Amino acid sequence: MSQPKAILFDLDDTLIKFDAVGKQAWTKCLTEFIRKYQIPEPFEMLYKELQKVKQWYWGDPERHRKGRANIKAARREVVSLLLKEIGITSNHLIYELADRYTAYHWECIT
């Protein structure tokens, strides 16, 4: 019996739970953002709108392909679309929220 030449492991949500901590990370980051910048919209509204934006963004095969190639830029675009809904267009704030989520998300992954 011959030995296999390679073994492939599916890390994405099989061995490493990337999506399992998404809500936890977004909850923390959005809550901090709302408090820091005194955003009048409640967390629940922003989180619900975030889910809609994410579904729209990742639901398109071409955007999905491009987004997977540069996840940092994709997250910034998603956050930009979210914040635009409440009148925030500052790249500084967009990048702060998106990049904080990315950093915290990585901290939470198991």
Written description of the protein model:
By secondary structure, the protein is mostly helical. 66% of the residues lie in helices and 0% in strands. It has helices spanning 22-36, 43-59, 61-69, 71-84, 91-108. The termini are far apart.
Task: Jot down its keywords.
110 residues, mainly alpha
Q: Outline, from the CA principal axes?
A: elongated
Put simply, the count of helices is 5
Major pleated sheet = none
Q: Tally of extended strands?
A: 0
Strand content: under 5%
Percent in helix: 55-70%
Overall average residue pLDDT:
91
- How far the N terminus sits from the C terminus, by CA atoms, comes to 36 Å
SSE arrangement, N to C = HHHHH
Could you tell me the radius of gyration in angstroms?
17 Å
Structural class by helix and strand composition: mainly alpha
Low-confidence stretches: none
TL;DR?
It contains 5 helices and no strands.
Task: List strands and helices in order, with pairings.
Blueprint: H1 22-36, H2 43-59, H3 61-69, H4 71-84, H5 91-108
Helix pairs in contact: 1-5, 2-4, 3-4, 4-5
